[in-house]
Every structure is written in structure tokens, then in C-alpha cells.
Amino acid sequence: MFERVLGLPAHPFFIHAAVVLVPLLAVAGILYAVWPAARRHVRWTMIVLAVATPGAVFAAKESGEAFEESPNFQSDQLQAKISEHEDFGSTLFLIVVGLVLVALVMAYVVRPAPGEPIGPAVAHWALSGLTVVLAVAALYYVFKAGDTGAKMVWDGF
């Protein structure tokens, strides 16, 4: 399922969705966490991105694993580069899953409008802090995964 799209390798198609959606989710999560005035504007965007982003990252990860099996990529030197790239992608997927869970809980607990908060203030601060940490980690790992993949393509493997 993740091998080809219209006869072409699927990985180059799927990675673009991940490379766009991960930073958007990270920025939306950070804005929601640290800027209370923006919450009512960002909340639904963050929720939609939280639903879509894991699927994009999963598709990129799975299509990359299918792409790796190509007979053109079996040299030991190339497999070492692919392994490094794959490690960044796998770590990114785990971080995105954590970011999605925290962002969705934060969207429920940290309300966009002033009023009666759900739960103690410590929970709000903890969720906000965890969201920022996971968002920054997601930005780092999407950059590293993209950078290692692009270097393989543009430096000629």
C-alpha cells in the first residue's frame, strides 16, 4: 500500500505532507500553549492538525520502509545513511504521537475563553510546558529527517 503512487515511489509524495503538517502543528501547539489571546483563533486549527499529522508522518515512515527495500539501495554505505534517516523518522513519529496527545488534552483542559478552568492551574502549566518541549523536539526531528533524506538525494547517495 505504501510502495507506489501512480507507478512512482510513494515516499517522495508522503514526506511532503509530513514536512508541512509537523511544523504547522508545532507552531499551533506553541501558540496555544503560550499565548492565551490566540487560543480562540488557534484551537480548531490545532485540533485538525493533531488529527491529520500522525497519519502523514505514519505514511511517510511506512513508505520510506517500503522504499528502502528497493534493489537500488542495498549497498552497505547507502544502508548506513538510510538507517540514520530512518532513525530520525521513527523518533519523529513517536514525538508527534506524544505532541498530538498532549495538544488534544490541552485543547480540552486549557479553554480558549476566560472562565472556569478544568483542573488545577498546575495542570495547565504542565500541559503548556510539555507541548512546547514536544513541539520543539518535533521541529528538530522533522528537520533532521528531512535534511538526511535530502542529502542522500542531492549528494547522490
From TrEMBL:
Keywords: Membrane, Transmembrane, Transmembrane helix
Domain DUF2231: 7-155
Transmembrane segments: 12-35, 91-110, 122-143
InterPro entries: DUF2231_TM
Highest taxon listed in the record's lineage: Bacteria
Protein name (record): DUF2231 domain-containing protein
Source lineage: Bacteria, Bacillati, Actinomycetota, Actinomycetes, Micromonosporales
